[in-house]
Write a structure and sequence with these properties.
Number of helices: 21
Structural class: alpha+beta
Bound molecules: adenosine monophosphate
Number of strands: 21
Strand content: 15-25%
Helix content: 25-40%
Largest sheet: 8 strands, mixed
Distance between the termini: 57 Å
């Protein structure tokens, strides 16, 4: 397969904003590929060489990529740098400079998919003192053999910013359209949810059809998409929705961890599938030591505890464990505990289809007693009074609130989905003062006065699962301290986009656009109809969306959540409806 044909498809995806059109472009192209080629193309379309959870990323710095472009095109580096300053995207620099290449390639070879995968693998594996210059040379060699469009996407892939607009959901649609029936889409999605590996699902489907996909099961090798909770505004509503009886657990304020334990070692993943094994070596070791069976996948909330008193500390403390260096001292300075709440796999058996009570019973028998591991506090409650009393105990124990969990026969673990089998209820709602939202930054406005020269406010958005677009919900300008405002431009730099990203739907135009990437926790006073925000456009009123009034940053950077996991348009709309009236 010629790489230029693949780049042409990426170009067509980028040109169209329509999910339907992207689906048919991909479906038509997938049909032309061998199964193993399909796997590679799927990874490349997501700007990577492996599935998302693979511990090594290509992640070349923009400056290094500019060097490679300049070398391949035969221009001084300053020329690449000048165009980059204007465009902000190394892909655009490559397309421009390779199209007016001065350097004649001496050993010109036509790039194939195989060459590209091989070159990228070499880049990924370069290690040691001259790894940077090695990576630069390999990329430059590939660029000098590429056509302008191919060069553009090579640079996007190595910097991890593909921006074709084709999301995982679009790829699933295309796989169903190409190899199966529309009605088979849920089965294909199930396989993706239990493996988090779209390439594997694609290749399996192309080789063995739907029957092969149906045999894809939970294994310790692949992380599983996490199950998420709905929310309701009061405990009586939670109880009514649960049919008057449910399990309630403390909702701990920490970091969710999915642990895959096998052969005496553990791999730990965040809810975004980042590999956190190196950040919590103590938890990994204790899980492996205390496991009473051979293999298991469990989930829990990792919470920092005071080394002297053992009291639980706020979420911000545990996030210090995310740093890359000085882990040994961090392990000592910030002790943590894992509050385990679910088991998804045990010695060859997929537990996700078992009801909650059965999973909880198995979980309680799977580990030997351990000072770092404990089960979440849980009680089955049968009345509003019992629920209130349990909630008060959770708050007194420094928890955020409670998680109500269905105990019906249908209470399976729904990988990758948010539903009413789990309902969260937090202190914020109880006090009826505020509600929290996890929102994604898609733009910034330059500051004035004291904030001159920095960003003064941010344009915040939510994902709409129907359209796959991020719709704006508020302009956020309060709650920032000076240190945060100073750090913001640097933190947002890698998401900068020269124009409104394809995945963003906005009417309000910021000074600077960003690809969805950074998630912040925001509190708001109420949700109202808004003519300038695009979330839930036309749902409440023609020619209007909904927006969050008086938003304030809580100081909590949700770097444990990806933009697609931020509070969705549907959730904000549900909150709008629950709130009853619109103050506007
Ligand atoms: P939120 O982040 O507000 O959507 O709340 C859901 C998160 O609460 C989960 O992803 C977990 O990280 C966390 N959590 C804390 N305690 C529990 C519990 N007992 N059961 C399930 N999730 C919990």
């Amino acid at each position: 397969m010629l790489y230029s044909d693949i780049a042409r498809v990426f170009g067509r995806l980028e040109e169209t904003g329509s999910r339907l059109e992207m689906t048919s472009i991909l479906a038509e192209f997938f049909a032309k590929l061998e199964p193993s080629e399909l796997r590679d193309v799927i990874y490349l379309s997501q700007g990577r060489l492996h599935p998302e959870f693979y511990p090594i990323e290509l992640g070349m710095a923009d400056k290094l990529v500019l060097k490679a472009i300049a070398k391949a095109a035969g221009y001084p580096e300053e020329e690449a740098e000048r165009i980059w300053q204007k465009e902000g995207d190394p892909g655009a620099v490559a397309e421009d400079m390779i199209s007016r290449k001065r350097q004649l390639t001496l050993f010109s070879e036509t790039l194939t998919l195989e060459n590209v995968v091989q070159g990228l693998t070499e880049i990924e594996r370069s290690e040691g003192k001259d790894s940077q210059s090695q990576k630069m040379k390999i990329l430059s060699r590939m660029l000098s053999n590429a056509e302008p469009e191919g060069a553009k996407y090579l640079c996007r892939i190595v910097t991890g910013r593909m921006r074709t607009g084709a999301s995982a959901m679009t790829i699933l649609d295309a796989l169903a359209e190409c190899f199966a029936d529309k009605s088979d889409r849920p089965e294909i999605e199930r396989a993706f949810n239990v493996t988090c590996d779209m390439g594997l699902v694609g290749e399996t489907l192309a080789r063995g059809g739907l029957a092969a996909v149906s045999s894809i099961q939970v294994t310790v090798d692949n992380p599983i998409k996490v199950m998420l909770a709905e929310r309701l505004p009061s405990l009586p509503e939670v109880m009514a929705r649960m049919g008057g009886r449910c399990a309630m657990e403390f909702k701990y304020d920490g970091m969710r961890i999915q642990a895959h334990i096998s052969n005496g070692s553990s791999r730990l993943y965040s809810r975004r599938l980042e590999n956190l094994t190196g950040n919590f070596p103590d938890i990994g070791e204790h899980l492996a030591q205390s496991l009473k069976v051979k293999e298991a996948i469990i989930e829990g909330e990792c919470v920092a505890v005071d080394p002297d008193t053992g009291a639980m500390l706020p979420f911000q403390t545990v996030t210090h464990r995310r740093r890359k260096h000085g882990m040994d001292s961090a392990v000592k300075e910030i002790p943590v505990k894992l509050f385990m709440f679910d088991i998804l796999y045990l010695d060859g058996e997929d537990m996700t289809q078992m009801p909650y009570c059965e999973r909880r019973r198995v979980l309680s028998q799977t580990f030997a007693e351990d000072p770092l591991l404990t089960l979440t506090t849980m009680e089955v409650v049968s009345s509003d009074e019992e629920a209130e009393a349990f909630f008060d105990r959770a708050i007194a124990s420094k928890c955020e609130g409670v998680m109500a969990k269905s105990i019906s026969d249908a209470s399976v673990y729904r990988a990758g989905s948010r539903g009413f089998l789990w309902i969260k209820y937090k202190k914020d709602y109880h006090e009826a003062l505020t509600d929290t939202f996890d929102l994604t930054v898609v733009g910034a406005f330059y500051g004035m006065g004291k904030r001159a020269g920095k960003y003064g406010a941010l344009l915040m958005a939510s994902p709409d699962s129907e359209t796959g677009k991020f719709c704006t919900v508020c302009k956020l300008g309060t709650g920032f301290d000076d240190a945060f405002l100073d750090a913001l431009p640097g933190m947002l730099e890698r998401f900068k986009s020269e124009s409104c990203p394809r995945s963003v739907e906005a009417k309000m135009i910021p000074d600077v656009w960003f690809e969805p990437g950074m998630v912040l926790e925001v509190v708001g006073a109420e949700i109202s109809v808004s003519p300038i925000h695009t979330a839930a456009w036309g749902w409440v009123k023609e020619d209007a969306g909904i927006g969050i009034r008086f938003p304030r940053y809580t100081g909590r950077l949700r770097d444990d959540k990806g933009p697609e996991a931020s509070t969705s348009v549907q959730e904000i709309f549900d909150m709008y409806e629950m709130q009853g009236s619109d103050a506007v």
